[in-house]
Structures are given as structure tokens and as C-alpha cells.
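Example with several molecule types.
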Amino acid sequence: MAADGGMGHATKRREDVRFLMGLGKYCDDHTPAKTSYCAFARSNVANGKINSIDTVAAAGMPGVLAVFTGEDFAEVGGNPAGWLINSRDGEPMKEPKRPVLAYGKVRHVGDAYAAVIAETLEQAMDAVEAIEADIDELDAVVKMADALANDKTLVHDEIGTNQCFDWGWIEDNRAATDAAIKAAPHVTTLELVNNRLVPNAMEPRCSIGEYEPGTGDYKLTTTSQNPHLTRLLISAFVLGIPENKLTVHSPDVGGGFGSKIYHYGEEALVLAAAKKLNRPVKWTSTRTEAFLSDAHGRDHVTKIELACEKDGTFIAFRTETMANVGAYLSNFSTVTPTFLHGTLMAGNYTVPNVYVNVKAVFTNTAPVDAYRGAGRPEASFSLERVIDKAARELGINPIELRRKNFIKPDQYPFASAAGLEYDSGNYDALMDALEKRANLDGFEARCAESKKNGKLRGLGINSYVEACGIAPSNLVGILGARVGLYDAATVRVNATGNISVMVGAHSHGQGHETAFPQIVADMLGIDPLSIDIVHGDTSKIPFGMGTYGSRSLAVCGSAVFRATEKIIKKATLIAAHMLEDEPENVDFTDGDFAVKGTNKKVSFGEVALKAYIPHDFPIEFIEPGLEETAFYDPANFTYPSGAYGCEVEVDPETGKVDICAMVAIDDFGNVVNPMIVTGQVQGGLAQGIGQALLEHGIYDENGQLLSGSFMDYAMPRADDLPNFVVDHSNATPCTHNPIGAKGCGEAGAIGSPPTVVNAVIDALQRGGYDVEHIDMPVSPARVWAAMNA
Amino acid sequence: MYNFEFTKPTTVEDAAKAMSAEGAQALGGGQTLLPTMKQRLAMPEILVSLTDVEGMVGVSKAGTTLTIGGGTTHAQVATDAAASYPGLSALADGIGDPAVRNRGTIGGSLANNDPAACYPAAALASGATITTNKRDILADNYFQGMFETALDETEIVTAVSFPIPEKSNYQKFVQPASRFALVGVFVAKTADGVRVAVTGASNGGVYRWTEAETALNGDFSARAIEDMSGDATDMITDLHGSAEYRAHLVGVLTRRAVVASS
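Resulting C-alpha cells for the full complex:
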């Protein structure tokens, strides 16, 4: 094993050196020779009929090279949904075309209907203002309940409804769940909203199209979490450019959180424009455009019921959810509220009956898709809020109620009532650790101290399990996925012994450039700094599915592991040849190949050199070179879990909530780099607390985004957050991948929102206020209103 | 941002002359104007920077009056007024973030008169005098509604004179996103009586809460205004809080300001 920098070592992130020194090279830092600039005309109404778009004046403006409208793309394909969901009656979901530019109708504020390419960005922006669009504003549907009740005002006229699908999970369990709830001695019901979030990655989207007329090759440099998927969508569905003629390069990217998984129309536009003009075309999103046109997250309205025995034994969970998909189906918008949400509705519990109904609804708002956690935060929020309410109603301590229903360590593998098979976990151990690290014994004393200061103190508890490491292709295929969800890695050992590892996962803040070499270094017994990761460029890397769903380490890391195993196998053959012995007599330890029971050995470096100078190879048995590729398809999801605790103080005069303590106890299985994992949890907690207390993408009744800038959309700042306690030492390894890793990227954002809200409600209840629920964000105004209702 | 001309005069006279041109706009620290221009929501033809105008920067005390040059940054006020007028210094130290405080100016803030800005509350509660290149204007006559002031188009705030109160304090309850005042209350106790100014709450911009002033003139204690709250009738309702919530906060913050005043 590498003494420093192998598996489990808290190696500092090597990529941070360039990021912190301003040496990162992001999309907008790429400006090919003769670059022209693109600006979009976007709708300022939420629903409108396009009568005409007059571009003559714009086309005549100084520096303008071309003007495009939806008509120019009327014949090319739509940007598809990546997952087919069938309704309860077996009907496939409604799937209206999502065009490159709006054509005939605009469907949300920010919907792009024209684009100008000019010599400079200012000229392009000036020309956009000169486009004369005759658009009749129509009534908009904004609230989901209104959209479902309304068959006159439609987002997409051609489908005759605003309902995309009406999905049941598991439909065959519906009757049994209904019957169990009907017969149950106690039923707790809660209606709640999972608030819409705007992702707000630090770097806005940016896309540059290039075309080589001599070869017919296209290149798209773009802010993407999955360049191969973007290439596939553009090639197979939208523009029809052959995959072998299109390179997609996603360089350094400043955060994604889901919003950069998807293919967007702007990417297709800059490619088409680059070919037409025979010049590079660059578009960089403004922050305003990001608010209006990036895929948003969450936005569920849910009613959940928990049926239980008087002693608190869970009998059933039944959930009815409306999920907003916005004006168009973004690529993962249909799987996020269904399979990434409904399958988690058994939580950490041995509950026998679960049924989930989800209606997906079109509205005249920005598309909604996966955002850090993607369906699982919605599941955890519903479950853990209703459990807290049930605990109060039954007079049972919320920790004890959870423990009573936990799956126990000897029950794995455990088939949950929501259709998943959890491979490992130990939820009681996590709760034990939480009680200790959160110093719950001292809570009552802290309560008294807060009271002395005129504050109401509360304690919130949450336990979560999520499904990540997305995902087994055979399973997701049965469930409607239109892609596989493996990943790939190529390990190329160079003649001088250093190594390039080409991976399908994309790093946009995750630290892959540090963590992945730790795996290879550990296996080969060499210095991790002699290993580099290559990612983000489809012309260099094997076909991978990118980064989201906490999958990079569990899936792509496993591909790296498998490819490195192949390297060791091949290198052993070469070493045996060099040592003049049989491969089965050669052991590989600490970077050396040695003949068992002798002192005959060759180093890994000597073998690498030999692989490329095969003067005496038995070429019928051993090929020259030392390079191996592995495609890894997981056998199951991975199941990280956690126990979270939060203490808040509420100011009863103003309703302001201060978080005093936040403790995250997680089980991520085996951890490659604990420092990076801790950072991932901290970031997730910040986003989860942002959702719980601050963030809200809110539209008015006309479909105008009221929180369309940082003046009104509250991002969490450092001083909104406490010092976190993060502990991932209670690990039960994943049983089905070679690293034993589960995935940590989304956990903090999944576990924290219900923890915070539970704490606020506990504080109010302890203070004598009969408040059962406050919708997120739990702003001072909302707390005060609830206290004074 | 649209293209514009830029001029940087060194005297008040030259600045006023430059501002008389068609489409001219004064530029102080630019903390409001520049973001607005970047979003193409403002399109001045000529920006008249006041940064180099002589004699407009500094904090000086004469007797019981503190005079602050119109071009003085919030950061400098926070430092230089700390000993003489701690209530005002603390207010300046709580505006925006360090970047804002080191660029934004008191003159710019008062000329813009954002309904949620902090300085208008201090000026009104202190009974300050706003001095321009043309005249002196009492704060009571200066603020005329949201983004409205007594200034004419070529008038420049050259200085602001604050009578230093016996006791004062500013309480700001921040709007969570912008961190402007959702409601801010400045309480000043002077030999002539108590003045209470409220920012952030009203559709009419900063205003004096005279009912509280009357009560506090009788008894300068939180108890004197214990059950009082602002009048919600013309208060702002938005996604961050209702009129009723703001009216409630006016009472809470005034009590806190009285208790904290020094």
C-alpha cells in the first residue's frame, strides 16, 4: 500500500492548487480564434402565442452575423426525456417536443425564441433588443393544482392536458396499503410542500460551438456533468451529427448540483450556428438567464399518511404527490419524482406497506429536474416530518419511535416495501453515535439556558437512507430508462511508469483528480502523484455516463478498480516472462513482482518499460503495451444512510431561527479520502439548510419569477451556518462493488432539511405553540405567522 | 451594460456642470448604479464620477455636530465616527459587506433613498441636515418617498451634518437574501426629544414613528412602548414578509433600540 496518499488517506486536493491560484480553465476562458458571440431573446411572458418574429432590423445592426428563430430548427429533433414513465393505467407519459428554440408558443419566462450571433457580445445584445416579436400573452398556469384542474389553459395544446403522467408505486400494493391504513389504530397525516430551488452553481452555463469544414468535425465546449450523454443526445435526437464527428469537451466546471447534467437548447444552437457561419460561436449565460432557464429542483406538493400501532410499530406509508416538471421535460425530470423518490418511501424501516402516487404536472415555469439529492430529499422530508408528528401524537420519543422500526443489522440484505434491496447498514449504530456526538444528555440544560435568554430551543432528529451509485443498467432498463448507467475507465501505464487514467465521470468540484489516483496508487503500490486523471473530453475518454446521483466513486471508481486489476493481471504475465517463471508463481506486493519463495523480483516500473520495449516478448501470448479498459455496471444501487441531529433557537419576537448545532452521522461504506468526504457533507448540509431556511424559487400568478436574483433568492452564507459535526466512521461497506463505497455527494442535502424543520417545530411545541408544520423555507416571517395564527 | 461617456471632475462646480448635460448621472461608490447598469436596467449617457471631487470626503466634529463629506465611504464612517457617534458608526459598519462598505458612500445612499437602505433612518432620526452644492435641506424635508428626494437633477450631496444625540441605536432585521433592512429602526434621544425613524417597512420609504416618539418622550424605556407596533396600513408586503409582520417588527426593533441605546 502507498504509505501516503493511498485508500483512506486524507490527501489534500491537488486540483485546488490551480483553482485557488486562478489557474483553472473554465469554458468561458476558452476563446478560439475568430470567436463570435451569441445572445438570446427570451420570453418575458409565461405563456404566449408567437404570431411573428421580425428579425430584419436586428439582422441589419452593426456586427450582426446571423439571427436564428424557432423556425430554423422546426425540422430538427426535440431534446428528449431520458426516462419513460407509464401511468397507472399503462398509458405512456405525455412527452411534448422540446425544441431548440421556442416555435409557435413560448411557455415560460426565459424561454428562448431567437438568437443573435455578432462580432461582439454587446452587438449581439443590442440586436436582441431590436428583434420585434409579436407575442400574444395568454393566461398562465403556475400552481400545480390549478394546472391539473384546468383543461382550457394548456402548456402544450397538442397533448390536451397539463398532466404528464399519473404514476403508482407499487401499483400492485395499492389495495393492501389502503386496507392497512383503513384498519390501523392510528394514522398521522401531513400535507407539505417541498420548495422549488434554483441551483445557482457558481459558474453559469457556457457553450462554445466550433466546426471544421475540412473534416466536417464539430466541437462543443460546454459546462456539462456528462459530456458523453450530451453528445449522445445531440447526435441521436437533436441535430443528428454523427457521434464520431462531434467532440464534447467539458473543461473545469464551477459546480453543477444537477443543473449541468442536461442537454440544453443553447448547446445545439451554438453548434448549428458555428457550422452556418464557419466560425466559433460562444454563449455565456448571465446570472439572470441562469435563474430563468437552468433546470430548477424539487417543487413537490405532498400529502403523506403514516399508519401505525398504538405502540408505534409502523404499518403503512401512503403518499400522494404532485411534482412540477415545469414547461418542458428536462432529461431526468420524469425519473426524479418517480423512481428516485417513490422507491425510498419505506425509509430505514421494516414497514410492510408502502404506496406512492405521483402526478407530474406541466406548468408555465422553468423546467424542474434533478438537483443535489434528486427525489431522495423529497422522500426523506415527507417521511421524517410525518414520523416526527406521529411521535408527538403517540407520546413516544422521536428517537425511540425510529429505533423501534429500524431495519436491524442482521436483516440484510433487506427487501424494502418500496421495492429496493438494501445491501448493508446499521441504523442503530448511527443513532448511538448521534446521541453521543450531539451530546443529547445535555439538551435539557441547554434548553433552560436558551429560555433564560428569551429564546425557544428545539431538537430535530432525522434518519435517512438513500439509493445512489446510480445505477444497475438491467434494473433501470426495466423501469423505463432509455440509457444504461454503467461507467468506464481506461488505465494507461506509460513506458516510463507514470499513468494516465481516462474516466467517464466528470469532476466539477468533487475532487476526482485526487481521489481516483488514490485507488490506483493503493493497488499498484506507487506514488499517487505519478497518476493523472483525464476527464471531460469525449475524444480522450471511454464512453461514460458522467457525474450525478453520488455515482462517481461507486460506479466510475469501481471501473478504475477493475481496469487496474486488469493492469496487474497483464503486468504479472510480463513480469513472469521477465522472471522466467510461471505467472501463477508470481506475487505482486508493494509495487514489486516476485517469484514466490525466492528473492527474484522486478519492479512495476521495470515491467511498464518492458511492456513498451517488447524485444523478446512471446507475442503469441503477450501483446505489447500496458493499457486496460473496464466498463463497470453496478449490481445494485448503493445505500448510504445517516442519523442527523440539529438544535435551533427560535426568537419568539421575530420568528428568526438560528441553528446552534448540526451533527451529521453518515455511513458511506468505505471512504477513499475522508477529507473530501467531509467537505462533500459540509456542502450538502449548507444546501440542505439553504432549502430549509432560506431558498425559494417562487413565481407569481402570472408566472413571473419573483426570486429571480440574489436580491430576493436567499443563498446560504457562512454566517447562516453553525460549525458542523461530521462523522463517517460508522461504516458498513457496500457489499457489491469492489471498493465497498456507497456515495457521499448528496447525503447532506438529503438528511438536513427534515432535521432542521423538525427542530423548529420542536422548539415551538416546547414553547407552548401548537404548530405542527411550517413549509420551507422556514423564514422568520413564516415562523412568526405560524406562531400568531 | 450599454456604452456611456465617463467624466471625473475635481470640483463641485465642474461636477454640477457635467450633470446638467442630457442623460448625465452622478456616480458615487456605484454599489447600486453599476449592478443596475450591468443588467441594462439603467442607461445613463454620461457618468459623472464624484470620486475625485475635492472636499467631499471626511468626518469632522465641531461642538455637538458631526459632519460627513458626501463622498465618504461607509467603512470610513464606521471607523471615524466610532468615538463621536457610536450609533451611526455601528449602522455604517452593518451596511452590506466589506466590498460595499469600502466603495459605497453616504451621499450616494441618501441620493438614491432606497426604501430599505440604512442611512436614511439615521439621517431622519438624527434630524440631520443634507448639504448640497446649492442649499441645506433638513432631513424632515429631504425624504419624499421610495427613491424620491428633494434633490433636483444637478444637485450633489456634498455633506451631511448630524447633531450628535445623547443616546442612539440602530436595529436592523435583515431581509435574508439582500440583507438590506427588512425593517430597520433608528432611535435617537436628544435634548430636544426622542426621534424614531423606520426604514424598510413602508411603501412611502423612511418615516418617523411619531406615536413611539411621544411615548418615549414621556418615558425613555422599552416599557413605554411595550404593546405598540407600527401601523400596517401602508407597509410593504412581499415574499419576505407581510405588512403585518413588518408592523410587528417595527415595535420589536424600536424596543430593542431603546434598550441598546448608548
